[in-house]
UniProtKB/TrEMBL annotation:
Pfam families linked to this entry: Hint_2
Biased composition range(s): Basic and acidic residues: 8-17
Name of the molecule in the record: Hedgehog/Intein (Hint) domain-containing protein
Residue span(s) of domain Hedgehog/Intein (Hint): 38-169
InterPro entries in the record: Hedgehog/Intein_dom, Hint_dom_sf
Region described as Disordered: spans on this chain: 1-22
Superkingdom of source: Bacteria
């Protein structure tokens, strides 16, 4: 997995609209509208097996994509969609059908939660098959759609010593932030480990369009296989 120092042609990790917080400044019923984090019920791979993210405690060991088992630092817990009846559509969560992102069961994602997607398209476009994008860019991909929230949900953000990508619901991959933002002085230290990058929403939508084209081409190729086998059989007679 390439990191920030290796892939400077991409933009630094950020929320889809360029923000760095977990909410967009909008208030619903005097509560912030959260846009990233993992929703309670999401199963996370830990040293003790798959566990609900809501049950994770500080110090628990979590399986990460690049660095094996890592201890969780601080944990943030907040409620989203407390005023669910008046939440603007742009803040609605996304419903991910089983299998769409390697997940075994249906999942609910906040719109700006960074999601890692593995694809040949990513390899061709960025030189890396693993690409981090904001979840909302996946709308329309493999049945992923927005859904009006009908109840409040508990949102958990796991913070590690450095940014990590964790495994969820068997095969899905989600970004988790570092405990604190690094300063310019930290960037100059040899011990500093560069963070991940996420595409901007515009870049991510171009990428997802390319994924859709790739899937369409694969589907067409599969449809043509019976005809090609039949033609090959006829030539052999």
């Amino acid at each position: 997995m390439m990191k920030l120092g290796q892939m400077l042609r991409r933009e630094p990790l950020r929320e889809a609209s360029g923000r760095t917080g977990a909410w967009d400044g909008t208030l619903q019923g005097m509560q912030p509208v959260l846009t990233s984090g993992l929703i309670a019920g999401t199963q996370i791979a830990t040293a003790r097996g798959w566990r609900d993210v809501a049950e994770i405690k500080e110090g628990d060991k979590i399986l990460t994509f690049d660095e094996g088992m890592q201890a969780v630092g601080t944990i943030s817990r907040s409620w989203a969609y407390l005023g669910h009846g008046s939440v603007p559509m742009q803040h609605w969560p996304l419903v991910v059908p089983p299998g769409a992102l390697g997940n075994r069961a249906e999942m609910l994602l906040l719109p700006e939660q960074p999601v890692m997607v593995e694809s040949d398209t990513g390899e061709a476009m960025f030189g890396d098959p693993f690409t981090l994008i904001p979840a909302l860019a996946l709308e329309g991909y493999k049945g992923i759609e927005r859904a009006r929230p009908h109840q409040a949900v508990l949102v958990i953000v796991l913070h590690f010593a450095t940014e990590q990508v964790v495994f969820a619901n068997i095969g899905a991959l989600f970004h988790c932030p570092a405990e604190e933002v690094m300063s310019i002085a930290d960037l100059m230290e040899d011990r500093f480990v560069p963070g991940y990058e996420v595409l901007s929403l515009t870049e991510a939508r171009v990428f997802v369009d390319a994924l859709l084209d790739e899937d369409a081409q694969d589907a067409q190729w599969m449809r043509m296989q019976p005809q090609r086998r039949e033609e090959k059989s006829e030539r052999a007679i």
